[in-house]
Amino acid sequence: ERQLAEAAREMGWRESHANPEKPEGYRAIHRALLAGLLGNVGMKDEAEGDYVGARGIRFRVHPGSGTRKPGKWIVAAELVETTRLYARTVASVDPRWIEEIGAHVLKRHTERPHWDRARAQVVAFERATLYGLPVYADRRIHYGPRDPETAREIFIRAALVAGEYDTCAPFFAHNRRLVAEIERLEHKARRPDILVDEELIFAFYDARIPEGITNGADFEKWRKEAERAQPKLLFLRREELMRHEAAGITTANFPAELALGPNRYPLEYRFEPGAPRDGVTMTVPVALLNQVPAARCEWLVPGMLREKVQALAKGLPPRVRQRLGPLAAFADAFVAAVSPSDTPLAEALARYIRERYQVEVPADGLRPEALPAHLRMNFRVVEADGRQLGMGRDLAALKRALAPQAQSALETEIGAAGEARHTAWTFGDLPERVEFSRDGRTLAGYPALADEGDAVAVRVFESPERARETHRAGVLRLFRIALRERLRELEKGLARDRALAPLAQDLLTAALVRAFLADGVPRTQAEFARRLAEGRSRLALIAQELERHVAAILAERAALEERLAAAQKAFPQAAADVREQLARLLPPGFLARLPWERLQHLPRYLKAARRRLEKLRENPARDAARAAELAPLEHAWRREVAACARNGALPPALEQFGWMLEELRVSLFAEELKTPVPVSAKRLARLWQSIAR
Questions:
Q1: How far is CA 385 from the centre of its chain?
Q2: Helices and strands (H and E) in the chain: how many
């Protein structure tokens, strides 16, 4: 100690009076000792309870060292090996002191260099060791000064080529926009080989940016100076980014929007097989959802129509497909000759083949549902704020699932009335359709009277089908209110008949429909008043006639069910067919749903079915042959009805064909009952060709 004091005085150093019991004194003394004892540093191994020292040695603190609770890092005055290796005279140290004092002996390692967008520089993670002991790890450092060549390459690839850079430089916005345009061309053309490889874009920047540029600050300084002499130095050109021209990829073939009626819907193209948005996606505000025509959307866009037509033609039966010649040429000819319309694409295609090639396409020959997903329009339904409500390629399913949201959005947009309740027609005339303009969009609404139980309210609906159905019920409610006393008397009379009592409400509804709605559903106050005046006097007579007719229907049904029970075991197939027919003819609520002209024929249809079962035992082969004659037409009709049910509406022609099938059953199985019009399987097959396509 005396020698140290003398040496310090000779060198002109001032003597420190730091108190070793205080933090600043402890720090000063132990940093001084650490400088000469770096080889005696140890780090505690929590699992084993001892310390790991330089080059992997392990030791414990000697009990006589005077330190009761040494820290995680310690330095020892000496290491002595007795029964084992011990550290004597130890003190806790801060690992930061080791980094500062032992910087010359630390070994530093850098790893995982990468571009940091927020810092606008290439960074890496550094770790340092002292004789094998980890002093620190995962310290983020600026990598440019460590490895300028690698840092420059990372900067160009990540910041400039990949676009992970925040700058207002004109070249950067221009180049990113150009790359995005060509990527959109790839999605439209469904070819991933239009944009050049990223290596060529890297080579473009590499040839222009000098050595030593590794971060955003240095790059901006160099760029501003270089662009004074060459303003377009870093501007990419379209031809430099394209391997080949994207022939046919024009705005006309791949529009950014699809015009449907008065509105335009944004389109987005994506080439990502298997992904939900593969193909073309149309964004539809929920308030306009029910205005989107499903048939028109089947035509997609001109640039995709040829491929779709070719795919549909490829699925035709061989005998039809061979008549068309090369399918690519056929698709080109169709697209050139037929313009997109509201006619379903399959129907237009079948008509074109029939007129051009004199070939009939089978009812199930063209199957759009079997096409790849990208050849069917994808619909993305959004709220006013852009939030997605649903997405899919089945427009009818989306309309059903989002009907409440569509109705609510429409009422919000147009402020639809509906609060006032009416018990008489005192609200003026109702137009079938009203239009409103909101934010550049044209919204269509369909006014109707809604049945509120003991009153009606004027509502505006998002679809004409729903409005018609609701309006019919609402008008019937007004007639019920106006005729409540007379209806109560009729209901008392029906309640006395045990057979008719369960059908009383349906029977009265049927009587109201026949008496007041035979010529359609009124939409004006004057027409409603006229119908009420004319139908009031004949309501009771109509109800009595319906009672007699319903009694006949119920009697025929009871006789048919008795025959069915007897035929079930011997002829299960024929019995099952008749049971399906019975369920179709007399579903729950049939009296209220079927018009009078259909109700009149029900007893004859039921009697024909009973006669069929009666004849069955005499000649089962004849019954099977005639059932086989009927089956193809009925199966095709049922399939089409199921498809229309998904779309929410059954065309009148398809409904009429169903009744013609019932007449065909009479002709095939009970011809003695006669049919009002000539009917045969061949006649209906020809009729079906005109209906289905």
A1: 17
A2: 27, 16
Decide: 128 and 186 in contact? Cβ < 8 Å: no
Picking from 406, 375, 408, 409, the residue whose alpha carbon sits closest to that of residue 393 is 375
Are the beta carbons of 678 and 666 closer than 8 angstroms? no
- Report in angstroms the alpha-carbon separations of 537 from 190, 383, 486: 70, 51, 10
Residue 219, CB half-sphere, CA atoms under 13 Å: how many? 26
Compute φ and ψ for 364, nearest 5 degrees: -105, 20
DSSP structural state of residue 360: P
Report which secondary-structure segment, H or E, holds 101: helix 95-101
- Relative to beta strand 133-142, strand 121-130 is antiparallel
List the single range of 8-22, 266-280, 596-610 with lowest mean pLDDT: 8-22
Tell me the backbone φ, ψ of residue 427, rounded to 5 degrees. Answer: -115, 15
What DSSP designation does 422 have? B
> Which tokens belong to 374?
């990208």
Sequence letter at residue 156: I
Q: Which long-range contacts (CB under 8 A, 24 or more apart) does 584-592 make?
A: 585/662, 586/553, 586/557, 589/506, 590/506, 591/503, 591/506, 591/507, 591/509, 591/510, 591/546, 591/550, 592/505, 592/506, 592/509, 592/510, 592/513
Tokens 């064909």 sit on residue: 657
Q: Which of 219-223, 418-422, 531-535 has the lowest mean pLDDT?
A: 418-422
HSE-up of 128 (CA within 13 Å, CB side)? 16
382 SS3 class? strand
Report yes or no: 420 and 379 within 8 Å, Cβ to Cβ: no
Q: Which long-range contacts (CB under 8 A, 24 or more apart) does 672-678 make?
A: 672/611, 673/604, 673/607, 673/608, 673/611
Please state, in angstroms and rounded to a whole number, the distance separating the CA atoms of residues 263 and 67. Answer: 84
Residue 479: strand, helix, or coil: helix
H-helix or E-strand spanning residue 139: strand 133-142
Whole-model pTM: value is 0.59
Helix (H) or strand (E) holding 110: strand 107-116
pLDDT digit string, tens, across residues 313-347: 998 888 888 889 899 999 999 999 999 998 889 88
